[in-house]
Automatic annotation (TrEMBL):
Cellular component aspect of the GO annotation: cytoplasm
Similarity-based family: Belongs to the peptidase M17 family.
Key word Protease present: yes
Molecular function terms from GO: manganese ion binding; metalloaminopeptidase activity
Record's keyword annotation contains Hydrolase: yes
Assigned keywords, A-Z: Aminopeptidase, Hydrolase, Manganese, Protease
Protein name per its UniProtKB record: Leucyl aminopeptidase family protein
Pfam family, one: Peptidase_M17_N_1
Domain called Cytosol aminopeptidase: residue spans: 308-315
SUPFAM superfamilies registered for this protein in UniProt: Zn-dependent exopeptidases
C-alpha cells in the first residue's frame, strides 16, 4: 500500500510550487491581479474561467512555474484538487491561498494505484503542505481505510476468499489488541445455519466461516458493525449469466467496508465496545449447493423458504445480525453489496440507506453531505412486508415480481434486528464503473466516511 503519510506535510514555509485554485465567480478579479506573463499564458491557453480550466503558469525564472485550476466545487469537497494530485509531477506543493482542508484526502487518494498484478510506471510522491498539521493523522487514516476497501474489492476471488478475509481480520485484531473468534465446520452448521448453507458448496480451503472481533472497554456502549463477505457469487444453482458474474469478486465489498470502519474505530480508540461480524462465504455450485425451494433454519429460529439462491447475501447477514443483537448493542451498522435494485434506484454513487431510527438517519445523511460521502435514504416500507410471505415457511428470501427489490431485501434483514435497536443498513455498490478525480475505476468505499463521522461524533 502507498505510504499516505508521506503525501501530507506541515507547512513550515519550505520550498514548494504554488497551486492557484480559483472559483469561476472570482475569475475576473483573480485575473486582474496577475502579472502580464500570467495573463499572457491564460490568453494563450484560451481560458475563460470555466470550471475545469487549468494551465501551467510561468514564474519569474525559467524553471519557476505554478499551477492554475478553475474549480466550482465547495470548499468542503474532498475532491477539489484531486485531479492535480494525480496529474502533477513529483514534487512539493502548497495552495496559493487558504488551506486544503478536506481536499487533503482527495490529494492522497488520487495517488492510489492497484498494482498487485502488474508493474506500474514509477512515480514519485506529490506532497501537499498544510497549515493544519493536527488534521494530517486522521486524513491519513481515512486514506488508508479507503485504500484498504479498494484493495480488497479489486483483488480477484482466487486471492481473496474466506480464508483471506480471516487473515485480514486476524491482522486487524493483532494490530489493536482485539480478540478474534472464528466459527466454522459443525459449530457453524449448528449455530449459523444460513451462513453454512450458502457456503457449503465451496471447495476445501474456501469453507464458510463467521469472523468476530471484540475490542474496547466492556463498560462502554456496544456497537456492532456487520459486513457481507460473499467472496465470489456465482448465483448458486440460480446461476448468474456470465455478464452479471464478471464483477462478483466485489461481492465482499460490505466486509471490506466493515473491516476498514472497525480499523478506524480502534485506531482512534473511540469510547465504545466494538463487535465486528463478517460472515465469509463463497456462493459456489456443486452437488452440495443449497437449492431453490429448500427451507432453511436460522439462528433466530425463523424458517426461510429459499426462492432464489442468488439472494444469498441477506441470508448470511440474517444470522450475523441475530448474533449481533444477542449482545444488546445500542447501534448496528451493516454494509452489503446486496441488490441490483439499489443500483437501478440510485445508481452506482449512492449507497441506498435504510435506517431504523429517525435521529440516526438524520445524523447519517448530514454527515454524508458534510464529508462528501453522500447517502440516499430509502424506506423500510411496512406495506411491502406481505411480499415476504411464504406458503411453507416463516418468510421467503426473494419475493416474486421484482418490485422494490432493495426495500424488500432491507425488510428481510429487519426481521433479524430487534425493534428497539438503532440500525442502519447500507446497500452499497463498492465499485466505480468510471473514473473520477481521486476515484479510479474499480473498487471504492461508499458510505464509509459518513458512518465514521457519525461514530466519531457519538463516541469520541
Amino acid at each position: 500500500m502507498i505510504d499516505f503519510s508521506a503525501l501530507l506535510q506541515p507547512d513550515r514555509r519550505q520550498a514548494a510550487r504554488l497551486i492557484h485554485v480559483v472559483h469561476p465567480d472570482d475569475w475576473q478579479q483573480w485575473l486582474a491581479t496577475q502579472p502580464p506573463r500570467v495573463r499572457t499564458a491564460v490568453a494563450a491557453h484560451k481560458l475563460t474561467g470555466k470550471a475545469g480550466n487549468r494551465a501551467v503558469l510561468p514564474g519569474e525564472a525559467a524553471d519557476d512555474w505554478s499551477m492554475l485550476l478553475v474549480c466550482d466545487e465547495d470548499a468542503s469537497s474532498p475532491w477539489k484538487i484531486a485531479s492535480l494530485g494525480e496529474q502533477l509531477p513529483e514534487g512539493t506543493y502548497r495552495l496559493a491561498s487558504g488551506e486544503p482542508g478536506a481536499a487533503m484526502l482527495g490529494w492522497m487518494l488520487a495517488q492510489y494505484r492497484f498494482e498487485r498484478y502488474r508493474k506500474g510506471k514509477p512515480q514519485g510522491p506529490r506532497v501537499l503542505l498544510t497549515g493544519e498539521p493536527a488534521r494530517i493523522e486522521e486524513m491519513v487514516r481515512l486514506a488508508e481505510a479507503t485504500a484498504k476497501v479498494r484493495d480488497l474489492v479489486n483483488t480477484p476471488a482466487l486471492d481473496c476468499g474466506p480464508a483471506e478475509l480471516e487473515a485480514e481480520a486476524e491482522a486487524l485484531a493483532g494490530r489493536h489488541g482485539a480478540t478474534l473468534t472464528v466459527t466454522r465446520g459443525d459449530a457453524l452448521a449448528q449455530g449459523y445455519p444460513m451462513i453454512h448453507a450458502v457456503g457449503q458448496a465451496a471447495a476445501r480451503g474456501r469453507e464458510p466461516r463467521l469472523l468476530e472481533i471484540e475490542w474496547g472497554d466492556p463498560a462502554h456502549p456496544r456497537v456492532a458493525i456487520v459486513g457481507k463477505g460473499v467472496c465470489f457469487d456465482t448465483g448458486g444453482l440460480d446461476l448468474k449469466p456470465s455478464a452479471a458474474m464478471r464483477l462478483m469478486k466485489k461481492d465482499m465489498g460490505g466486509a471490506a467496508h466493515a473491516l476498514a470502519l472497525a480499523g478506524l474505530v480502534m485506531a482512534a480508540r473511540l469510547k465504545l465496545r466494538l463487535h465486528l461480524l463478517v460472515p465469509a462465504v463463497e456462493n459456489s455450485v456443486s452437488s452440495a449447493s443449497f437449492r431453490p425451494g429448500d427451507v432453511l433454519r436460522t439462528r433466530k429460529g425463523l424458517t426461510v423458504e429459499n426462492t432464489n439462491t442468488d439472494a444469498e447475501g441477506r441470508l448470511i447477514l440474517g444470522d450475523a445480525l441475530t448474533r449481533a443483537g444477542e449482545l444488546a448493542p445500542e447501534l448496528i451498522l451493516d454494509f452489503a453489496t446486496l441488490t441490483g435494485a439499489a443500483r437501478v434506484a440510485v445508481g452506482p454513487d449512492l449507497p441506498a440507506t435504510f435506517v431504523q431510527d429517525e435521529a440516526l438517519a438524520a445524523d447519517l445523511l448530514a454527515a454524508g453531505t458534510s464529508v462528501g460521502d453522500p447517502l440516499w435514504r430509502l424506506p423500510l416500507w411496512d406495506g411491502y412486508e406481505d411480499m415476504l410471505k411464504s406458503d411453507v415457511a416463516d418468510l421467503v428470501n426473494a419475493p416474486e415480481g421484482g418490485f422494490a427489490g432493495a426495500v424488500t431485501a432491507a425488510l428481510f434483514l429487519r426481521r433479524f434486528v430487534a425493534k428497539d435497536t438503532r440500525w442502519a443498513h447500507f446497500d452499497t455498490f463498492a465499485w466505480r464503473p468510471a473514473a473520477k478525480p481521486g476515484r479510479p475505476k474499480g473498487g471504492d468505499a461508499m458510505g464509509l466516511r459518513a458512518a465514521w463521522s457519525v461514530l466519531k461524533a457519538r463516541y469520541a
